[in-house]
Amino acid sequence: MPPPRSTALTVVAPIIPARRDALAAALAEIASDLDGSDGENHVLPLGVLPRTHFIRWVIVDDRARELPPVLAMEANIDGPVDAYLRDLAAVAADGMDRLFGCCVGYPAGGARDVLAFTRWMRRHARRAEAFYCAYRDVPKAQVDNDRKVHDAIREIVDARRAELATLPPRRVMERIRAEVRARAAADGLDLSPQPDDDDRFARAFRRTVAAAVAGGLVALPALLAVAPLAAATLRWKETRDRPAVFPHPVRDRSGLQHDEDFIVQNQLTNVVDVKPGWFRYGLLRAVLYGIDRLARTYYVHGHLGGITSIHFARWVIVPDPRPWRPLARRRHRLLFFSNYDASWESYLGEFVDRAAGGLTAVWSNTEGFPRARWLKEDGADDEEAFKNWARSIQIPTQVWWSGARYSTTQNVIDDVWIRRRMERDLSDQEIEAWLLRL
User: Which CATH number fits domain 6-126: 1.10.3470, 3.90.1200, 3.30.70, 3.40.50?
Assistant: First the structure.
């Protein structure tokens, strides 16, 4: 049976203005005791949520005060959205009611009316234009189990180090395997064989490339006709862009750093206006579509364009909710959510060093980004300007919960890799690689 798919659930709902303060208070109460372990969190004990890797709630205000404030929920989950929403209603109905009850049109019966709740949440769900996961389709239960298996192996190695050092590699692995099996039942460890998904992702990547080539060949005449005009339009718009100016070193004016560096991971929520006009909007969606296809089929081994610190990330476009009016500017916004390892500085630095072109291709279509050239040149190469801009569009995240608080992306990937191979018949070379990775 294949593992449940990694799923990006994003719900964006307008807040009733008179209920905003009550919502902020409820979120602060949740944040005071995220797991509910100390008895303070009576709103939403996050530790009991099913199949959840990371989850957050954030109030998105409009600095220009033209658009209504919205409550955004970002969850990285296993399996279908409807099944998750039903489980969410079953274990956290009161919390869902207290939070989303502050939003426009929430069902009168609340989350206990499961069908109405699911429909309402689905109606306000926004599709991720691009979704990345470092350990795609690895269920939360497997992440937890494989960490415990790896911890058990470490304990055995530490306790038997002198003895194991005298044995050949195959005997070392046999001793470790036997001791882990002996304690599996008592420690609740699942040691059943696990397949690798490399072949499935490789096939998906080949299909994506084949489809892209076939589509490109079919559309080639149209592309050749349109490309010069598109390129000229892009450069014309780039020369007229108005990047934000920051005449100072990188600053955290909003005090966002006070909510960072408490555990191994950090979170980032950015919101910024898409540049006006259909050209930039369409170009942004095309770039994000390409990133999404690569993230689903190629970047499935713990890195996104060389960036190794991201657990989950997504880009979501939130359309302007106001009725269309002739000549009125539409303010579509781009939301970016990231769950990443280490500090904000190192994370942004890794983006600049390894994926500046991809950064520029996405965010040069949004307001204030450093001036770009030919979509992917310059832009994020100006590290100080880029970091200042990134801080300027970052907003506070009221509630953020991690289901792997003390594991980096590499920890999770190592745990899964070690666990999957522990019960296999490995060659001598594979055994040595397995022992080195412990």
Answer: 3.30.70
